[in-house]
Amino acid sequence: MEQQIADIQELIKQKSSFIDRLSAEISRVIVGQKYLIERLLIGLLADGHILIEGVPGLAKTLSVRTLSDAIQTGFKRIQFTPDLLPGDLIGTQIYSAKDSRFTVRKGPIFSNLILADEINRAPAKVQSALLEAMQERQVTIGDETFKLPEPFLVLATQNPIEQEGTYPLPEAQVDRFMLKLKVTYPSPEEELEIQERMAPQRNIDVSKITSPDEIIDARKAMHQIYIDEKVKKYIVDIVCATREPQKYGIELEDLIDYGASPRASIYLNIVSRAYAFLKGRAYVTPDDVKIIGPDVLRHRIILSYEAEAEEMTSDDIIRKVFNGVEVP
User: N or C terminus of the chain with fewer C-beta within 10 Å?
Assistant: First the structure.
């Protein structure tokens, strides 16, 4: 086993060489937001869609655009608005009078990195149009089905639902996002640096650091990272504790309407490996699960009316779950 882990460690060292360079290139444009940058890289490695929530002006869109600029790959930005139609997203059939037949015009979803900007400003039918693309990595237009390019990643931004003109995302769609990130305000020192860097209104050129082939190779190496059976059991206990907290001695049963689905267990396994990969380790620790767990779980727990009345958030519930489940 020790030799196997040593071999994996060497493989990770070879395949992760671009990670630090990619992170440094993004940081040339984005001040601070280390949590956001790190989670974007984890989503890229784990091949999982990301939902980024925060008030306007926190560099959500700029971070995603900078990431795409640093990768030699396709990128499309889709601005979600109340009058957006599903065809504007996935494409439609166009009738040609000259040929007397329909031809398919593909929409902007046919790219590698998709920035779904302010996704919760569009109505539910447009949000639902993303479901097949996100889950099946394919799109159906008329009676034809088209595979989406590889890699394919949806990076969606949303404003808090308390803001004017926003719609709550359907639970089925939210569950398709591997991670939900909550972006906060920068520190005073970071905001001063933002002024110095951005107030002159100059564009910072971003260099191409990596390619899709290098990312796919890194993903293959990441999936070889060792995760012990005790850590797998710990992941299962965490997810089950969101459904039946009383079995783990956690007094939350009146605060949770629905716990996390089995998709949460799968994603916790994958994302913990991706986090270990970023840290240059060939194995997953329980601390990796604890650190990345809230980003996987916060949008998969449906709170009860009692929890909302007590002004509890899903992050509060998750904190209690992690404190209540025994660590291996």
Answer: N
